[in-house]
Amino acid sequence: MDLSGFEADNSVSCRLSSPVPEVCKTEDCCLGIDEAGRGPVLGPMVYGICFCPISKKEDMKNLKVADSKTLTEAQRDNLFLMLDGAKSFVGWALQILSPNTISTSMLQRAKYNLNALSHDAAIGLVQFALDCGVQVKEVFVDTVGPAEKYQDKLSKRFPGIEVTVRPKADSLFPIVSAASICAKVARDHAVKSWKFAENLGEVDTDYGSGYPGDPKTKSWLQKYLDPVFGYPQFVRFSWSTAQTLLDSKAVPVHWDDDEEDGAKGAARQNNTSMLSYLSRNKPDELTHSRDTHRFFTERKLQSISNL
């Protein structure tokens, strides 16, 4: 799977897709939706769709696709090659949500939780297929949140399309199993070949499954926690696992906000305000010369004197 479009800048989300088979533009089609990597604290979450003509459902079943979680990595890779090779009647598309996108979305002022992010990714992929000319008439989805509410939401968003939302849909409908395989293969490859934008030297890539309960993942998180700048963008810093480690092991910082004047809040905690650290008019104790930290240069951040 070619992920160069995402690897070019893995700090933002990316959409990848196969060519649309001509038959999918002329015949009624079914479309499956599933995701991979919802729970891990490391790496992206990937939403995938797979579609084919309704008349080709048996052909899809004959590819012997199955829920990606029941397959080995080698089996998933082989099945994806089969799906990608069936270009005459099968198409797919992916929405890769970077860890940075997930965390900044969840922590923005207007709360945007993981369910809403997932729903929007799924809706965006269905709309993408429609915009590409796919004659979608049936949609099968693995549920996120209450199945009935999700089904009603999708049915209203796409009138005229029969929507079926079921728990464990990836084990019930081959077209969802196919989407599950596409999503899982993409996530596995993205994690395995992750390019760290941060200058971390030789990075230990033995980070386990990426799930919070994995001892290898916990060990990796402790090893690569910077006490001032936190984690590389490979980590979903909005996850409670990462937050707990930051709270216990990182340098305490008071952020200015609307609820309390920053300087007063910092003084109360016997701490230095973050904005005073960044401002050009620094306190006397911070006026000595220093090079700009890579955290700011990598993100193209600059100091400002006023808003």
UniProtKB/TrEMBL annotation:
<dbReference type="GO" id="GO:0006298">
    <property type="term" value="P:mismatch repair"/>
</dbReference>
<feature type="domain" description="RNase H type-2">
    <location>
        <begin position="28"/>
        <end position="251"/>
    </location>
</feature>
<dbReference type="InterPro" id="IPR004649">
    <property type="entry name" value="RNase_H2_suA"/>
</dbReference>
<dbReference type="InterPro" id="IPR001352">
    <property type="entry name" value="RNase_HII/HIII"/>
</dbReference>
<dbReference type="Pfam" id="PF01351">
    <property type="entry name" value="RNase_HII"/>
</dbReference>
<dbReference type="GO" id="GO:0003723">
    <property type="term" value="F:RNA binding"/>
</dbReference>
<feature type="binding site">
    <location>
        <position position="34"/>
    </location>
    <ligand>
        <name>a divalent metal cation</name>
    </ligand>
</feature>
<dbReference type="GO" id="GO:0004523">
    <property type="term" value="F:RNA-DNA hybrid ribonuclease activity"/>
</dbReference>
<dbReference type="InterPro" id="IPR023160">
    <property type="entry name" value="RNase_HII_hlx-loop-hlx_cap_dom"/>
</dbReference>
<dbReference type="InterPro" id="IPR036397">
    <property type="entry name" value="RNaseH_sf"/>
</dbReference>
<comment type="subunit">
    <text>The RNase H2 complex is a heterotrimer composed of the catalytic subunit RNASEH2A and the non-catalytic subunits RNASEH2B and RNASEH2C.</text>
</comment>
<dbReference type="GO" id="GO:0032299">
    <property type="term" value="C:ribonuclease H2 complex"/>
</dbReference>
<feature type="binding site">
    <location>
        <position position="142"/>
    </location>
    <ligand>
        <name>a divalent metal cation</name>
    </ligand>
</feature>
<protein>
    <recommendedName>
        <fullName>Ribonuclease</fullName>
        <ecNumber>3.1.26.4</ecNumber>
    </recommendedName>
</protein>
<keyword id="KW-0378">Hydrolase</keyword>
<keyword id="KW-0540">Nuclease</keyword>
<comment type="function">
    <text>Endonuclease that specifically degrades the RNA of RNA-DNA hybrids.</text>
</comment>
<dbReference type="InterPro" id="IPR024567">
    <property type="entry name" value="RNase_HII/HIII_dom"/>
</dbReference>
<dbReference type="InterPro" id="IPR012337">
    <property type="entry name" value="RNaseH-like_sf"/>
</dbReference>
<feature type="binding site">
    <location>
        <position position="35"/>
    </location>
    <ligand>
        <name>a divalent metal cation</name>
    </ligand>
</feature>
<comment type="similarity">
    <text>Belongs to the RNase HII family. Eukaryotic subfamily.</text>
</comment>
<comment type="function">
    <text>Catalytic subunit of RNase HII, an endonuclease that specifically degrades the RNA of RNA:DNA hybrids. Participates in DNA replication, possibly by mediating the removal of lagging-strand Okazaki fragment RNA primers during DNA replication. Mediates the excision of single ribonucleotides from DNA:RNA duplexes.</text>
</comment>
<keyword id="KW-0479">Metal-binding</keyword>
<keyword id="KW-0255">Endonuclease</keyword>
<dbReference type="GO" id="GO:0046872">
    <property type="term" value="F:metal ion binding"/>
</dbReference>
<dbReference type="GO" id="GO:0043137">
    <property type="term" value="P:DNA replication, removal of RNA primer"/>
</dbReference>
